[in-house]
Amino acid sequence: MENTKSTYTTKMLVLSALFTAIVAACSQISIPIGPVPFTLQVLAIFLASLILPPKFAFLSLLVYDLLGAVGVPVFAGFTGGLSKFVGPTGGYLMAFPIAAFVTSYINAKKPIKNEAANASVALILGLAIIYVFGFLYLSWAANMTLKKAFAAGVLPFIIPDIIKLAIAYLIVRAVKSRKVLSIA
């Protein structure tokens, strides 16, 4: 029994590290459109959230944030450092591990019996966490009104991010249906 638990934990740690790297890579696909760049981070975060159990989804994004905090250039535009956490995008960065945990937790607990509906609720709630932390912090860090911060930090991203959520769900569904990834 202990060997099975050890194998499971090892597999989850490896997958967590893999998703940390995937988030870092997707962060580099970046289009600056204002104080908050357009990236593929959200796609990678929610892939991790739908595949990993809650504590490992959280861990994966916490490690991503910690790597960036110590200066590893994992954030958008190959940047890193603590300054990113006090800048306009700091709230988004801080929200990533929380959103990953909540999304993974809801997806795993399945409060809604329909898989697609359950995943949709989990994904939308996770995205809402990122948006709320992000635009409130953006308002403070950039000395913007809440309305301006919402217009700059949420509004342009809603439709692209919903598309990314749908893509993440479809990728995970395809991977799980082919039994390519066995996490149990």
What layout of secondary structure does this protein have?
Layout (H helix, E strand, L loop, with lengths): L1 H26 L2 E2 L6 E2 L1 H11 L2 H16 L13 H4 L3 H20 L5 H27 L4 H8 L4 H20 L7
Antiparallel strand pairs: 1-2
Helix pairs in contact: 1-2, 1-3, 2-3, 2-5, 2-6, 2-8, 3-5, 5-6, 6-7, 6-8
Fold and architecture overview:
- The protein has 184 residues and is mostly helical.
- The chain contains eight helices and two strands.
- A two-stranded antiparallel sheet has the order 1-2.
- The longest helix is centred in the C-terminal third of the chain and has 27 residues.
Report Rg: 16 Å
Task: Tell me the number of strands.
Answer: 2
Helical content, roughly? Answer: over 70%
Low-confidence stretches: none
Based on Cα principal axes, name the global outline. globular
Key features?
single chain; 184 residues; two-stranded antiparallel sheet
Short description:
By secondary structure, this protein is mostly helical. The chain has eight helices and two strands.
